[in-house]
Design brief:
mainly beta
């Protein structure tokens, strides 16, 4: 385990969690445990309760929007900009320290006349995000003429992937993402 006032180098094969210390000015500092399983469970829950649910968004002067979700010592932010073409970043903090981030960018293909149908289907897919791989949606999902595919490499400590939606076999939406556990701040 990594201990101290932050987190050290993450070795995914052996890494089990963090012992976060140095909070509230106490001496000796209390240890607050964060595990990869706990992190994955929270990220999946936050995504199910965020964009997938159509949750209300904060709007900013620069045109970006943000969805937040809080539970216990966890805080999730998903801040993005755009609609037809878009990009964003998700950040998870635990006990006030950022511990995980994912960046993404994508677009809806064509003239966007069916954009709301595509995004409605995407929200259904994202609601099925697995806690064991909480990046986007499941590996695949099909409803009527729409088919979702999600392919990733890595694990919650360091990963990248691509997702797409095809309508009647023709690509209608694509997104690329990458993320990782954050190291020493």
């Amino acid at each position: 385990m990594v201990s101290g006032t932050g987190w050290g180098a993450v070795k995914p094969a052996s890494f089990r969690g963090w012992c976060l210390s140095g909070f509230a000015g106490s001496s000796p500092a209390p240890c607050i445990m964060l595990t990869l399983r706990g992190l994955g469970n929270f990220i999946a829950e936050a995504k199910r309760n965020g964009y997938a649910k159509g949750e209300a968004k904060l709007k900013f002067a620069d045109g970006s929007k943000e969805i937040t979700f809080r539970k216990g010592k966890f805080l999730y932010h998903d801040r993005y900009r755009g609609s037809r073409e878009f990009r964003g970043k998700e950040t998870v903090s635990f006990a006030g320290k950022p511990v995980w981030e994912m960046e993404y960018c994508g677009k809806v293909s064509g003239n966007g006349k069916n954009r709301e149908e595509i995004y409605s289907f995407l929200r259904k897919c994202l609601a099925r995000v697995p806690a064991s791989a909480p990046y986007r949606g499941p590996k695949s999902m099909r409803v009527g003429k729409l088919e979702y595919e999600n392919d990733w490499k890595g694990n919650i400590a360091s990963f990248k992937g691509k997702e797409s939606i095809a309508e009647n076999g023709k690509k209608a939406y694509s997104l690329e993402y990458k993320g990782m556990i954050l190291g020493e701040n």
